Amino acid sequence: MAKIGIFKTFEETARKLQNILQKLTFEENFSKEYIDVEDPANNAIIAYNSTDRKWEDKAVYELTDVVNITTSDYTATLADEVIVVDNGNTALTITLPTAVGNVGKKFEIKVLGLGVVTVDPNGSETIDDQTTICLSQYDGMQIVSNDAEWVIV
């Protein structure tokens, strides 16, 4: 088994992996045509094509949106995915967009500060049948819309 190791840069790791893969003999029944390597620094995925035996740009992907909140209330948008609350001692409220029409939409919320953070669904919607959820320091939750309310997963 070849060991890739940890290198200072993505490029150095990719070069080492490429050298290893070029030395391998791929069998005809090899189950995966591409071996993907993510490059988060460049928002890209490169792939080793075992058929052509070369590296290719496979896709560019969008990084997760992270919203840092300090001392004010915040209304989440559908573009948000991860909300990190660094609110010091200040209590604040995160208001969610409607769950209706947004089935499968997920939010991850993490509290770093000492102040209580209230997560408030849109209008009369609920989170696991509760009108609000209160989070304390280091609490976190992941919620998803079921098209009627938010559900903690």
Layout of SSEs?
Blueprint: H1 10-23, E1 34-39, E2 44-49, E3 54-60, E4 66-69, E5 74-75, E6 82-85, E7 92-95, E8 106-111, E9 117-120, E10 133-135, E11 140-145, E12 150-152
Parallel strand pairs: 4-6, 5-7, 6-8, 7-9
Antiparallel strand pairs: 1-2, 2-3, 8-11, 9-10, 11-12
Give a short synopsis of this structure:
The protein is mainly β. Helices cover 9% and strands 36% of the residues. It contains 1 helix and 12 strands, in the order αββββββββββββ.
Describe the structure.
This protein has 153 residues and is mainly β. It has 2 domains: 10-60, no CATH class; 66-152, Jelly Rolls (Sandwich), CATH 2.60.120. Helix content is 9%, strand content 36%. It is built from 1 helix and 12 strands, in the order αββββββββββββ. It has one helix at residues 10-23; strands at residues 34-39, 44-49, 54-60, 66-69, 74-75, 82-85, 92-95, 106-111, 117-120, 133-135, 140-145, 150-152. Strands 4-6-8-11-12 form a 5-stranded mixed β-sheet, with no helix packed on it. A 4-stranded mixed β-sheet has the order 5-7-9-10, with no helix packed on it. β2 and β3 form a beta hairpin. The two termini are 38 Å apart. Residues 1-7, 24-34 and 59-63 have low confidence and may be disordered.
Number of domains: 2
Counted by DSSP, the helix tally is: 1
Helix content: under 10%
Give the H and E element order. Answer: HEEEEEEEEEEEE
Distance between the termini: 38 Å
Poorly predicted runs are 1-7, 24-34, 59-63
What's the pLDDT, averaged over the residues? 75
Rg over CA atoms, rounded to whole Å, is 22 Å
Assign the CATH topology of the largest domain.
Jelly Rolls
CATH architecture of the largest domain: Sandwich
Largest sheet: 5 strands, mixed
Spatial ordering of strands, largest sheet: 4-6-8-11-12
CATH class placement of the largest domain? Mainly Beta
Q: In terms of structural class, how would the helical and strand content be classed?
A: mainly beta
β-strand number: 12
Q: Beta-strand percentage?
A: 35-45%
Shape assignment = elongated
